[in-house]
Specification:
The structure holds 2 protein chains of 2 kinds. Helices cover 76% and strands 0% of the residues of chain A. Chain A is mostly helical. Chain A has one domain (53-257): MetI-like fold (Orthogonal Bundle). In chain A, α8 runs antiparallel to α10 and α9 runs antiparallel to α10. Chain B is of the alpha/beta class. In chain B, a hairpin with a 6-residue loop joins β8 (203-207) and β9 (214-219). The relative contact order of chain B is 0.19. The chains are: A mainly alpha, B alpha/beta. Chain A binds chain B through residues 161-162, 164-171, 175, 179-180, 183-184, 186, 258-260, 262, and chain B through 54-56, 75, 77-79, 81, 83, 85, 87-90, 98-99, 101-103, 130-132, 146, 150.
């Protein structure tokens, strides 16, 4: 008698990785794009070729034009992001820890959070002038809200069991904040930082397109005005690199700061 | 130092605002160096009792307190939690040092004391691990070491091994007994496991279901150190049966009521 084998039902759950396809997809798109522009199917004015963009980028790098714009943008975004993050974490902690701050802060944040921050730029320019301050301020505002909201949520969701345990060992209010609430909120704070980084980049570009004569946003808008599509594309590629770099950096920082988080 | 629980009652309001009486007229004493277990059906307020002794909750009637001198710098109690309650962002070493930090001990002292209790709890070599890297049994060893490190007059244990698998639980009970032989700590041990209570304790306080009242305090006339052979002794079996007889109808009623 031969036993009938048990059918393998787990096949329905399988999800192969397709490593090669991952790389091929991206490479394929670039090759297709290059071919389309090389053959003249799509005029370079509308869509410059990848190699052309690369060459233009190299040229701008050599002339120092690119570095100037990147440095200006980086300065604005780092300052705005830093200020917004610091303010957001501070306010988020106050709201999470103190009942009074929560009572005052929650409705204020709920009322102002939905305003698209870029709409405030004209007002900020009126108040702070058209210089750096208004651009930094709009970025800081954009970063402030996700940071404040995430930090407050992280603090409030600190495990009550751990708070009880800490108190049972004699921890006071300040100890609780420093040794339980802060570390408990860190994962949420990092999630807020990643969210804020995206918002910061968006607001940077918008602000530079509206009122600036330097920076990557200005570079892109100016290139459009001059019909220099290749330069425009250089700007876009630069922004995507900036986004990738900030995400990578924050992920690295997170790993360093949260070694206790389970791997994976 | 003795633990005095005098006529303790506790009433709290549930989410719907109804008054719930968790404990009523509970009185017992834990002598120095004694292990007293508290058993009772679900919802008899055993953990509430421990919270009171840990200073996390004030009884609404009666009093909990201590009798005898407590040397300066020693806390009256330290708690071992059912769900371990380890700080996930702290290594084993740092978790064990937590209570010492709060007591204001200098870093060198903390390291030395924590090191001693890490060894005692069988955690040597795991100092730099994080809780998520440890098994349940190892995690509770950290919980025990953390509580012992502050040298409390009374060790409070809230169903410390109930989250562990049966085999690990048995081994941990043996280790706790071995630790007791070395430290002679006064221990108040809450459990719903009657075997465990009898096996560990000198006396077992049996509580009724809600509101928890003392049904009886059952003495366990087993010598120390406790050995596995005692699990078959008449004294052990009789004590277990006596307690089960007391609790059985209570537990059944609690089950029917469906209270947690």
């Amino acid at each position: 008698m031969t036993a009938r084998p048990v059918p393998n039902r787990a096949r329905a759950l399988a999800r192969p990785e397709h490593r090669v396809a991952r790389g091929l997809g991206l490479a394929g798109l670039l090759v297709l794009w290059e071919l389309l522009t090389r053959t003249g199917w799509v005029p370079a004015l509308f869509l410059p070729s990848p190699l052309g963009v690369l060459a233009a980028g190299g040229e701008m790098l050599r002339s120092g034009e690119l570095l100037g714009h990147v440095a200006t943008s980086l300065g604005r975004i780092l300052l705005g992001f830093g200020l917004g993050a610091l303010g957001g974490v501070g306010v988020g902690f106050a709201v999470g820890v103190f009942g009074l701050a929560e009572a005052v802060g929650t409705p204020l944040i709920a009322a102002t959070f939905p305003i698209p921050k870029i709409a405030l730029l004209p007002l900020l320019i009126l108040w702070l002038g058209i210089g750096e301050a208004s651009k930094v301020a709009v970025i800081a505002l954009g970063v402030f809200f996700p940071m404040a909201i995430n930090t407050a949520a992280g603090v409030r969701h600190a495990d009550p069991l751990l708070l009880r345990a800490a108190v049972s060992f004699g921890a006071g209010r300040w100890s609780l904040v420093r040794k339980v609430m802060l570390p408990a909120a860190l994962p949420m704070i990092f999630a807020g930082l990643k969210l804020g980084a995206g918002t910061a980049l968006l607001l940077l570009v918008a602000a530079e397109m509206i009122a600036a004569n330097s920076g990557i946003g200005y570079l892109i808008l100016n290139a459009q005005n001059l019909m220099e599509t290749t330069v425009l594309m250089v700007g876009i590629v630069l922004l995507s690199l900036l986004g990738l770099a900030s995400h990578w950096l924050l992920t690295r920082l997170e790993r360093l700061a949260l070694p206790w988080k389970a791997e994976g | 130092m003795r633990v005095l629980v005098r006529d303790v009652g506790h009433t709290y309001r549930d989410r719907a605002g109804h008054a719930v009486e968790a404990l009523a007229g509970v009185t017992f004493t834990v002598e120095a160096q004694e292990i007293v277990a508290v058993v009772g059906p679900s919802g008899c307020g055993k953990s509430t009792l421990l919270s009171m002794l840990a200073g996390l909750l004030t009884p609404s009637a009666g009093s909990v307190g201590f009798d005898g001198d407590l040397p300066a710098g020693r806390p009256p109690t330290a708690m071992v939690f059912q769900e371990f309650a380890l700080f996930p962002w702290r290594t084993v070493q740092a978790n064990v040092e937590f209570g010492l930090e709060e007591a204001g001990r200098p870093p060198a002292d903390r390291r030395a004391i924590a090191g001693r209790f890490i060894e005692l709890a069988g955690l040597g070599g795991f100092e730099r691990k994080y809780p998520h890297q440890l098994s349940g049994g190892m995690r509770q060893r950290v919980g025990i070491a953390r509580a012992l490190a502050v040298d409390p007059a009374v060790l409070l244990m809230d169903e410390p091994f109930s989250a562990l698998d049966a085999q690990t639980r048995q081994l941990m009970q043996e280790e706790l007994l071995a630790i007791w032989e070395q430290t002679r700590k006064t221990i108040l041990y809450v459990t719903h496991n009657i075997h465990e209570a009898v096996w560990l304790a000198d006396r077992v306080v049996v509580l009724s279901r809600r509101p928890g009242r003392v049904l009886e305090i059952v003495p366990v006339a087993l010598g120390r150190p406790r050995t596995e052979a005692m699990l078959g002794e008449r004294v052990f079996v009789d004590a277990v049966e006596r307690i089960w007889a007391l609790i059985k109808s209570q537990a059944r009623a609690a089950l029917r009521e469906g209270v947690a």
